[in-house]
Amino acid sequence: MNVHEQLDALESTLKKALKNANTKADLQDVKAKYLGKKAELSTMMRHMKDLPAEERPAFGQKINQAKQRFAALIETRRHEIETASLNARLKEERVDVTLPAPNYRTGRVHVMNQIVESIEDLFIGMGYLVKEGPEIESDLMNFEKLNLPKDHPARDMQDTFYISDDTLLRTHTSPVQIRTMLDYGGKKPVKIICPGKVYRRDDDDATHSHQFMQIEGLVVDTNTTMSDLKGTLLEVAKAMFGEDRKIRLRPSYFPFTEPSVEVDVTCSNCDGVGCSVCKQTGYIEILGAGMVHNNVLKASGYDPEQYQGFAFGMGVERIAMLKYGIEDIRHFYTNDLRFNKQF
Ligand code: FA5
Question: How many C-beta atoms lie closer than 10 Å to residue 47's C-beta?
Fold first, then answer.
């Protein structure tokens, strides 16, 4: 077989091999076999030295031309394989933009936070600052500085989770009153609210939870009166339960306020006429409040001769229960989507 025939034969086996190559890996193998170091073309090239000098240029040229043709054939096949695989992918991953979009479920703000945020908005609008305090609190802040010394019987009103003799889970948000007044150094007027979680060793039932939320309010200034407290609480009642609500203050007892009151709002179910929701009284209790006790002002560095204050503390779950007619406080914590989705 002369060189010419030899190269033709090689080219036709290459063409067959390319026909059978369907992937890039197949193509690599074919390329190595026909153009690599061990390829027949390379072997022929190595034998060129055995030819007479005058035949070598023509022989070399033929081999090189063959090399170029082989490379071009391989390149054409590569292009075909790539195009075929791209087309297959496009077919497989085709997106029908006219299909309706999937219905993604988005979350929403929990009803507890909705209530807290709306009360925060209301008070920020009245010039209050929003403060926070620690949930792990000292006995000093949670009780003693609030006029509740160690053996005070009123400590029983708030059954406490103690961590050590002097550390506890706060039973109310009132220690934030003390922290803020101490922070202000007994000099500046105070106007704050403080939302947060509190903890009590209460047995869980429809209206009690061992962990619940309160929003505390405190105003201290040189000309603060009970009627300021009443006006402020009326605004809260209207914002939460509607413009027509009326409020009523009943005498009560808290060691940290004097006088102390419990605040009722006219029942939104019967408009104050009397129904099963308000136990025929026409009113529903929403919070505790009062004028800050002189001992509390003194313990926090404020001179009671110069400053007076009012304070209040409301249970957020109870407000939400009244607002939305929820019969069991445990719904707020079981994370049942059927409940959460309603708000
Ligand atoms: C207090 O906690 C006082 N610190 C409130 C206060 C602040 C009075 C400032 C005066 C001045 P009381 O223990 O009543 O008060 O709790 C306040 C509110 O928290 C109650 O009206 C009720 O709405 C809610 N609450 C009390 N215990 C629970 C409980 N176990 N589960 C859910 N809510 C509760």
Answer: 10
Cα(115) to ligand 1 centroid in Å equals 16
Among protein residues, the one with the nearest Cα to ligand 1's atom 7 is 313
Q: Which helix (H) or strand (E) holds 216?
A: strand 211-221
Query: Which amino acid, residue 134?
Result: P
Task: Indicate the pLDDT class of residue 25, thresholds 50, 70 and 90.
Answer: very high
Q: Is the CB of 297 under 6 A from ligand 1?
A: no
Separation CA 334–CA 337 (nearest Å): 9
pTM of the model: 0.72
175 lines ligand 1 (CB under 6 A): no
**Across-strand partners of 193?**
130, 217
Query: DSSP for 142-189?
Result: HTGGGT--TT-GGGGGS---BSSSSEEE-SSSTHHHHHHHHHTTTTS-
List the end-to-end C-alpha distance of the chain, in Å, as a whole number. Answer: 90
Distance CA 285, CA 249 (A): 9
DSSP 32: H
pLDDT tens for residues 126-157? 999 999 999 999 999 999 999 999 989 888 88
User: What's the CA gap between 323 and 115, in Å, rounded?
Assistant: 10
Rounded to the nearest 5°, which phi and psi values hold at 269? -75, -40
* Atom 28 of ligand 1, nearest CA residue: 208
Class of domain 111-340: alpha beta
Hey, is 84 helix, strand or coil? helix
Those residues with Cβ within 8 angstroms of residue 123's Cβ, 6 or more apart along the chain or in another chain: 130, 193, 217
* Ramachandran bin of 222, using left for φ above 0, alpha for ψ from -120 to 50, beta for the remaining angles: alpha
Q: Is 314 helix (H, G, I), strand (E, B) or coil?
A: strand
